[in-house]
Specification:
Layout: E1 2-3, E2 19-20, H1 23-31, E3 52-56, E4 64-72, E5 78-85, E6 96-102, E7 110-116, E8 119-126, E9 129-135, E10 144-149, E11 173-174, E12 181-183, E13 186-193, E14 205-212, E15 224-225, E16 243-250, E17 256-262, E18 270-276, E19 283-284, E20 291-293, E21 303-305, E22 312-316, E23 334-340, E24 347-354, E25 362-371, E26 374-382, E27 398-404
Antiparallel strand pairs: 1-2, 3-27, 4-5, 5-6, 6-7, 8-9, 9-10, 11-13, 12-13, 13-14, 14-15, 16-17, 17-18, 18-19, 18-20, 21-22, 22-23, 23-24, 25-26, 26-27
Length: 419
Amino acid sequence: MRLPLRPAYITPFLRPMPRFLPATVLAFGLAFVPGLPAATPAAPDHSQVPGVVIAHSPKSTRIFLGSAGIVALPDGTYLAKHDEFGPGSTEKTNAITRVYRSVDRGRSWEPVSRIEGSFWANLFYHRGAVYLMGTTAGHRHGHAVIRRSTDGGRTWTTPKDENTGLLFPDISYHTAPMPVVVHNGRIWRAMEDEKGGDRWGRMFRAFMLSAPVDADLLKASSWTASNALPHDPSYLNGKFGGWLEGNAVIDPEGNIVNVLRTDYRDVPEKASIIRISADGKVATFDPARDFVDFPGGCKKFVIRRDPRDGRYWTISNAILPAHVGGNVERIRNAAVLMSSPDLRTWTPHHVVLYHANTASHGFQYVDWEFEGEDLILVARTAFNDGIGGADNQHNSNYLTFHRLEQFRRHAASTVEVAR
């Protein structure tokens, strides 16, 4: 089935792409929902949704689509994924992740696997295999785990013990689809545990995991964990709510750092930079210098370093001037391309996705990769679907794919954001 494009709803820097939506994709997206009425009042209308719809879940199901992730395989295949959260889901008992496949550069997608006991995971390719690294369930219930697929995401290993992907014997752990980076013969991945208290944000303790690049990544013994840094209520004049969803990044001096979303609900928004020792065992933070201004830093973001010139890029939920005010953490209606030469000074260049409504629209948890001159990205999208729209900006009803062509041409441009 081919749905017509509505270019007015797709910002002009995104190349309009036909939305080839095989019936199997939409059926897959709806069939997993328990309790659908026998006669659905109306069919969803995806025609105004920006990009390519990969999956959709109506708000009436109370199942929302989270943790957008993407990876491009060496043969040109793309894999994308989301998990299910919300009161209609099983996130606290048997979390579900769904993986999709595209063989035509993102123009169409098909479902390839449904994984039980997988939450907040990222997709990455390493030495001939695809991996999912995350947790088994939501807050207060999740083990830290890693899975491997050697058949393009169709089947996955099951983390049963310390030799098959169970990284720690205890609970509870937290993360998001965050990037891995290979540096100095090791693969690095940031995570958090939830052992810092009972309150969201303050309970997160940030740490770094690393393993030799040639190790068996399913073996817990392959991984080294740093110390976990807790919330400190004195930071940011008492307005520091916590840190989470960290990026493993190689800094300009060649050191591994963990750049984290920071729960500071004011502008300018902040990111936190935790420094990691060369052996991966020691994490340190200096509050006098390691909080940096970062538009969109109160929401999840992914940082990757451009292999061409070493510049750092991200797509964040920076707040545009028209939307200043309200809850900083829940303003997610703009996805903004930004870059930095040093991880500390960030320039907003271009609005990639936008909707004027902040209450029920969002383009959040964007995961992306470089592909030559382009960026390929997926978003956890909250958007009108013709049958009631999203529950709110946070409780997303779509997983969408987008291509930002010739992204580097925006490096000389700037856009105004709240500061």
